[in-house]
Amino acid sequence: MHCKVGFAGVDLWIVSPEDLVLSKLEWARDSGSELQMRDVRHLLEVPLDRAYLALWAGRLGLERLLEKASGD
Question: Residue 19 CA to chain centroid, in angstroms?
Answer without folding.
Answer: 4
